[in-house]
Amino acid sequence: MTKDMLTRRTFFGAAAGVSMLALAACGGNGGASDSAAPAAGDGTDPKGEGVMTYADYMAAAVDDEVVVECFVQDTQSWWEDQITIYAADADGAYFIYNAACTEEDSAKLVPGQKIKVTGYKAEWSGEFEIAEGTIEFEDGSTFISEPVDVTDLLGTDELIEHQNQRVAFTGMTVEPSTDPDGKEVAYLFNWDGSGAAGDDLYFNVSKDGETYSFTVESYLTGEDTDVYKAVQALEVGQVVNMTGYLYWYEGANPHIISVEVAE
Amino acid sequence: MSMKKLHNTHARGVRALPALLVALLCTVILAGCHGSQGMDAFEVPEQWDESRTYEITFWAKNDTNKTQTKIYEKAIDDFEALYPNVKVKMRLYTDYGKIYNDVITNISTNTTPNVCITYPDHIATYMTGVNTVVPLDGLFADEKYGLGGSEVKFQGPTTEQIIPEFLSECVLADEHYAIPYMRSTEICYVNKTYVEKLGFELPDVLTWDFIWEVSEAATEKNADGTYKVNGQKVLIPFIDKSTDNMMIQMLKQRGAGYSTAEGDIEIFNDDTREILTAVGEHAKSGAFSTFKISGYPANFLNAGQCIFAIDSSAGSTWMGSEAPLVDISPDKLVQFETAVRMVPQYDVDNPQMISQGPSICIFNKADSQEVLASWLFAQYLLTNDVQIAYAQTEGYVPVTSLAQDSAEYQDYLAQSGKDNDTHYSVKIDATKILLENAENTFVTPVFNGSASLRDASGQLIENVSKAVKRKQTINDTYLDGLFDDVLALYHLDQLGGGVAGNTESLGPLPRASKILIGALIVAWIGIIAVAIHDKLQERDS
To answer: Does residue B215 fall inside a structural domain?
Structure first.
């Protein structure tokens, strides 16, 4: 969560507090159920009626209505009754962009939670996503995907088959970026160094002579997170192992969620 | 690969606006409960106290452009060298919507910035707070510290040297509440190579009929599913980056209603229906799409996947095969001739295009000396050093004749095409269109809520474009529903002005609203009861 959002929430919290008592009368019992915590699964729960398999989803055309069941892997920060979700099942992954969601429900979108999402398939600069989604919480098992090491697929046409999945990159070398003053640095705020702390981080890493640009998406992992701090501590020439979600923007643009210096 | 912006970053600010507007209105209403009257009105001090030190905050926006950041930083350094007792702290944003959100958030806690790059639409909402924004006419005219003032330590413009059309855009409620900073307009960047390949001759002034005709012709495919004109599987002939500007300009060009100066909403009219019906037809055929639906027009244009890309002149450095900034991989770049035209028109003899671009406002503070320091810094941003340097970063136009007429700026324009960086021809051609058409520009009326109306106007096009692709039919029934949805989403019926063409009853208040109003009434009764009780006790004692 960014500092900006904290400020906004404080404001809304104060405003909301005034009317809380009045509005409380509107709501029914919105509390969570008392049922036991669901068991960890492998993401292969049978799909419900009318729900697409991952293959069906991938085969759907852009602008088709889609219905999927999947498991939350991560979320970007909730904002104005919308949330963006990184989700997966055993067969693949889904990027659910700006789904309708109350702040109360956003707290329930914890990693592993099973959800059903109804929305429209969309493509934005190469990223396939579910837009205008609505979320239903479902009982059943939980599922956290394991990272797939795609290091060797970088630069190949096969990489896109793993779009949105939790992926790993191993043994990559931190390469210099050039900041606005022309200095070589290990990372930049914004793609060209025009930003400031709290903005997205961009850093270059290479493998086998090819250099790639990776991102720490501040709405997913803000400046207080371990990965944000870890990237700020990187040095050019270090060899690193990373995990992230294989987001796409005119090509692979992974949202990195962990970085470890390998040697 | 570098990256211009991420769409999830983009959309967040935009969609937040209606709710924030309502929240601000609530705050203002609720402030009444505490008897708050806001700050005292600012009065220009007779003498600036240079024995004191001041720290002022400056919230600025850059186009994720490091050169712009450096220009701001240099401006601050140069200003602080002239005024060592003033420290300027800059906070950078990449989205005007985020600045707007944060300013609104900070109005309630009196923690607004001192100086802010913003839009007049947004200032109108900031002014909902009492004496929140400093009116500038008194400062303009001040003999010592005003524009061209005797004690100003740099050569800034006089009032007369600010381009009148741009300065007049900063008038709200009969007074200037901002100074213009940069100006731009919407531009149509054209793949001329493909237009001619399709058998058309590109006119000097585009018409909507021409754009639609060429775009439809371009949708013709080969037997293998590729498009004939580019041989690729992807082609969106016409993409508009800003659908709010698209709708606003189309309405203006048709002489149709948008809003009155007083804030009466006129957008739900027959011209809007005709525009949306046409948009729907061309979105359905695949001839048209939008930034929000498909992506940056520049990326499609540069990949040979778009023929007409409408975006700001301030986006010109991303446009064309030789663009200095490119967001797609080199193997996707296609070579073509880029032509630059004003936005398409309905009447080529009476062209109309929107004037946009950032302005600067100053927020009021309890310390009038601090406000004066803010004003001096704001004024410094109009000096030639800042104006000319910043204008060259993108297709911006300086807002002063002092800068526009300077030898340095004229030399910059004359060197168009000398290189593909500072003198990139597409950027300078885009700039010249605005310089040559200042009298053909317009702005929309500014009032509290005009920012929401602007968003609503774009949402109409976005919704229609999506709807037809989802096999919905655009007819009167659909448009009636769309108008109702957009009216409600953007709270256009709560802005104070009326809504023309929407006289139907909105039905009973929702239960939550009734309860909230009831609670407010009860709270007021309680406050009055306590006040009466206190008075009675006072009298008895």
So the answer is: yes
